[in-house]
Amino acid sequence: MTPTTLWMMTKIKDIVFATRNAGKIREVKKFFANSIFGILSLDEAGIDIHVIEDGATFEENAAKKAREICRKCEKIVLADDSGLMIDALDGAPGVDSANFLGADTPYAQRNAKILEMLANVPEDARAARFVCVIAIARPGQDIILQRTELHGQIAYAVTGQGGFGYDPIFFLPKYGITMAQMDVAQKNEISHRGQALRLVRSKLEEVEKL
Ligand code: IMP
User: Fold this and answer.
1) Is 164's C-beta closer than 6 angstroms to any atom of ligand 1?
2) Tens digit of each residue's pLDDT (9 = 90 or more) over 122-151
3) What structural domains and CATH numbers belong to the chain?
4) Which of 48, 120, 162, 195 is deepest in the core (most CB within 10 A)?
């Protein structure tokens, strides 16, 4: 084992990322792979509480999740609340993105429904954005919030196998592809969550004096 490999395996800080969404945890683990932060999912951290996301904003939900889980595990906790806002639908599904058409409804069905709702909407009115708010909770400290957005538009067809959720209908004109046509590394480079994670990593290094 080389010193570099050994260093990369020596994670200095465990961080709990408060999600059970396999797509999100895959992206976050990949993002922190070569850092001093070791990411634990809720299951890996042995945390079985379910925080009800009943806030009116992404900020309220992210802060509530991070605060409650931090209180339980006494570790640094990151919690994100994210969603898709579609201009032609007055910002829906928005904060309710995870429950749009029902929490257990397959995304193939939800994405098909959105395409149907936008069937007569012209290209210049199909703007949409992914929003991500990440809350950092540290034992005994105030919550820190970070918000980022990724602007794009709703595609005309479901395209791509990667990512999760609404990725197959989120088209990025600058790249000429949907988010589901990107691999995890590419998505992390540009996505709402990737941008927020970069800012959060800097803030963590600053406040934890690493
Ligand atoms: P949350 O777990 O309450 O933050 O739910 C966010 C929901 O927004 C997810 O279940 C997805 O439906 C959607 N969402 C958030 N980020 C993404 C993304 O990167 N791609 C596709 N859908 C996303």
Assistant:
1) yes
2) 999 999 999 999 999 999 999 999 999 999
3) 3-207 (3.90.950.10)
4) 195
